Amino acid sequence: MTTVVLEKIWKEYGNQIVLENIDITIESGSFVALVGPSGCGKTTLLKMLLGEERPTSGRILLDGVPLKAEPDWDRGVVFQRYSVFPHLTVLGNVLVGREFEQSRLLGRLFGAKRKTAIEDARALLKSVGLSDHENKYPAALSGGMQQRLALAQALMRKPKVLLLDEPFGALDPGIRAEVHALMNELWVEQGITVVMVTHDLSEAFRLGTRVIALERRRNRPEEKERYGATIAHDIAVWPPKKQKKLNGSAVASEVPALVATDVSAAVH
Fold first, then answer.
1. N or C: where does the chain have the smaller number of CB atoms within 10 Å of the terminal CB?
2. pLDDT (tens digit, 9 = 90+) per residue, 138-171?
3. Residue 40, SS3?
4. What is the DSSP track for 217-254?
């Protein structure tokens, strides 16, 4: 389990300030949901956690150690668009991360290592409900099944932190509810730290143990370039549900109405 610390993070692109003075400590095993209006820097913050972007100033620590300057095995990621390899089977998609990790020259495992990797991959496929589809290609899967596959793919290398960039936004409501339940189960079983970007407040409060709303407080045209988004709200979800499975009750019963209304006003 892993603690993530962001210290005085600023991010600028030329003269455009995107984020300013972001201080966050994400406790080990937390499920943090980042919300806010479009263009407030949520995805930029996630990319900095992944290592695709570097802060202009400030630093990010993973268990007290500065974050590596590029994506690595300690951070898994799932995007809104299904990030699976179309030319590989379901089983091959889950195996590929382990193969490149342990056999960087050939990208393929043999013997006992391959047998162990296949066993681990099949265990993950079972946990996401894809055991009966391991020989299919992604084109033969529904959107919900492809996103389940992407989750298994991201978890295969046992990351310390799982980053989710609006991973359920393209799913139909019924399928989204199923994948929400699956995501909660995986989080409980794996015991990992999760950071998720979402525009859906109900999703944020249903899945998260903590909801952080980013907002650009100065938003007049002449101010947009020189003032970035800051933390407008940092809410511990009530009642606490850390590492406990959700009971399927409505969001309104999990979060005080006043809190949900307050955050909704900030992100719209």
1. C
2. 999 988 899 899 999 999 988 999 999 998 887 8
3. coil
4. S--STTTTTT--BEEEEEEE-SS--TT-------HHHH
Which helix (H) or strand (E) element contains residue 110? Answer: none
Q: What is the pLDDT of residue 239?
A: 59
Q: Is the pLDDT score of 51 beyond 50?
A: yes
Task: List C-alpha distances in Å: 180 to 71, 79, 84, 148, 207.
Answer: 26, 15, 19, 10, 7
Q: Kindly state the tokens that stand for 223.
A: 């101010």
116 contact partners, CB below 8 Å, separation of at least 6:
none
Mean pLDDT of the 187-216 span: 92
Say yes or no to pLDDT of 253 above 50. no
What are the E-state strand segments in 95-153? none
Give the C-alpha separation, 154 to 186, whole Å.
Answer: 12
Phi, psi (degrees; rounded to nearest 5) at 143: -60, -45
- Distant-in-sequence, close-in-space partners of 13: CB < 8 Å, separation ≥ 6: none
Model confidence at 238, in pLDDT bands (50, 70, 90)?
low
Q: Give the model's pLDDT for residue 16.
A: 87
First to last CA, the chain: 34
User: Nearest-CA neighbor of 39 among 203, 224, 200, 205?
Assistant: 224
